[in-house]
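Practice problem: predict the structure.
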Amino acid sequence: MTATLPAPDTKAAGSGEAHEDDFYGWCLDQARALRALSAMRANLAVPLDLENLAEEIESLGISQLHELRARLRQLLAHLLKWRYQPQRRSRSWRATLRVQRDALADLLESSPSLKRRLAEELPKAYEKARRLAADETGLPLSTFPESCPFDLEQIEDPEFLP
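Answer:
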């Protein structure tokens, strides 16, 4: 199975520095390079399963995207709970917001090319967060706005509380 993902703006595909600076982008670049090598039917001294190597490396990058979605979903659900259940606010909820924001910031630091995916992923993550917040609070789904009431700056801001 081959996923089609946008090309990241990273350093040279073979650069070890690119691996350290943007893991997500590096994975996508390496998968593309392996597929190109496979298409050339390169005669390598040691046979490599280039297509499957490309898929495995690409899946490492895709796992970063899945983590981005999961972090956004959890963060948005807790922001909704904070806004719509003020009587239940606690240090634990505040700590959960901090943990999710820190984890999101760490992920974006290790894979900066994911930052460009935030706006695209936000509506999908919000819809799931909305359902999660309804399940966790027992409030009707209609309590929560159909579109995300928070912008990316607020979502990432460690001090923002709705």
